[in-house]
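Subject: complex prediction, re-run

Hi both,

The earlier run crashed halfway through, so I resubmitted it with identical inputs.
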Amino acid sequence: MSNKHALVALVTNKPGVLNRIASLFRRRGFNIESIAVGHSEVKGISRVTIVVDGSNAQVEQVRKQFEKEVNVIKVTDVTGDGTVTRELAMIKVKANPENRSEIIQIVDIFRANIVDVSSDSVVIEVTGEEKKIETLYELLRKFGIKEIARTGTIAMTRGNKGAVAEKVKRPKKETGNKKKEE
Amino acid sequence: MKKTGAQIICESLVKEDVEVVFGILGGVLLPLYDTLPQYPQLRHILVAHEQGAAHAAEGYARATGKVGVCIATSGPGATNLVTGIADAYLDSVPMIALTGQVVRSLIGKDAFQEIDITGITLPITKHNYLVTDTASMAETVKEAFYLAGTGRTGPVLIDIPKDVQTGQAEFKYPEKVNLKGYRPTLKGHPAQIKKAVEIIKEAKKPVLLTGRGIIISGAYDELKQLAEAAQIPVITTLLGISGFPESHVLSYGWLGMHGMAYANMAIDDADLIIAVGMRFDDRATGKVSGFAPNAKIIHIDIDPAEIGKNVRVDVPIVGDAKDVLKSLNKIIEVTEHVEWLQQLDEWRRDHPSIAIRETEKMLPQYVVRQIYHATKGDAIIVTGVGQHQMWAAQHYWFDEPNSLITSGGLGTMGFELPAAMGAKVGRPDKTVWCIAGDGGFQMTMQELATIAKEKIGVKIAILNNGFLGMVRQWQELFYEKRYVDTPLSCPDFVKIAEAYCIPGMTVKTKDEVIPAIEKAMATEGPYLLNFMVEPEENVYPMVPPGASLAEVMEEPQREVAK
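This time it finished cleanly. Structure:
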């Protein structure tokens, strides 16, 4: 059984923040399966989705280490049924007039799109869960894959729960002002 | 009015109540150092090597609880700080490291003495900054001090390009910091505290296991109150020593690889461990799968990431040790554990662990014990790493709060001399003894120059056995006495001290020990004692590497103990 976890992090958009994250995962012995970064709904806060492999306890440990980074505001493990995950891939497949229609059929079944056609190849754009992309990839292999580019998984929880940047935008009352009295 | 970046740095340091900085200047720090004389309230201590600056800042911070500050120039100056920064990181020591950097236009061009110090120190700082404009200088210093000194304290580095120091900006020191991603939890969750109290009530064989967190948060009284109310024995980690008075009836020493056998036995047999401000380091736990096999564990720590990292935890409580213990004390029930304490006393009687055997030889343990007697326990002891460190921790009895300063997590040889220097600067009222090994001492002994110049009255005791002693001990026990490269050829340390105008004495026999220590104490200013101790003495008890605490080895063929 796969132990993949998707961690969604809200981070302040400061120079070097990605370096800090990557360095942290490396030194805590975690291999990042995929990482996707982009703006969140709040200016100055980026949203990072990291997929890692590990037991619940291991992932919880790395989540806490991750959250300790000063530029990291909140990290949520969004693994499970309550989450929508998507990935986008572009696959360049060898194609000729004889097999092109077969490829198009497969693409249609997967609700993917052909975004470029040339005399000897097509570029297919597909969105979905990781499993869907992998299944399509397997089916296309017999035609000959020339290139594949994947974005890595992004994730969002269903309903009201989730990593909402709006909620973390305003700092709560400072609780850390602990000055030594001695 | 506009100020230069260098002035803003100094103004900010003054705002943070910094009284002393340890450092060495260099090309890119000229603007800052040229400005320093405008701020006579900032005492700058020029050290001999940047590693010494970092350890001195650590020693100062550990002795005072305040944030220590060190300064180094770009390139090699900055990289020389790295060991001290790492040491501070692993022992949660609040420290600010200021480094100079080449002018902004040269960054990334492999300029002379350019190094990516923020990249290098990324995994060994709580946070670090490269200041890219003078206008953000004050805010950066404010944030850095806030981060270093709050929550789980630690080192923060600020890298400052030369032209940021010369640039100008309005100076306004921020009142508050605005860090979205940093809000340490100080108060323990009430439900968890209640749960802990329930478990403590049921326990028959509880142990309080306390670390440096007690010292950092100043939770001495709260710990004592809890231990006394619930009659729970207190065992500390190495870094937790002096968080609880060792002469207290409920004190049962410290655990781990060279901890007391009875402490390790107590942990092994306990049915409840209340761990406060400690992180279950492998030198403390022994083989982790064999650690406290019968115990439930309550873990109180300010760093949520420490909970569950090394051992399974039944009741986690995230919070500041002082705050959490205070809340616990409000609802703890007065209990007794007569049988359990009797059992511990029995173990302590049968496995004394810190008895010194009767002999005419000059044992290092004996030297430490005599320092204890001469100071009446009222001194700050600073050690490096190795055998001398273990003997100091075992044979000096620490009753005074925060009276042992030692490199725990990183285990840095050479920490002792500069750290003792920093400690004495921070606590001039206290007697500070630097207990050193002959190996580690040679790694940073150039700081004798600083000690002499600044007239820092550190008393130095070198336990000179002519070996890298702890490694030799491992070679003896686990590598069939093949002493590969552990014998040392030491210089005459007294002559070295003399060259720096520091008085000293070599001590060769046991009957010279007490007069020598008295002479050192009676002499104003620094003094160096070179004790030619028994060369192949081993540290016992010892939990062999990879073994569990229950497999503790005691001193073989124990002669009559005294």
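The radius of gyration of chain A is 20 Å.

- K.
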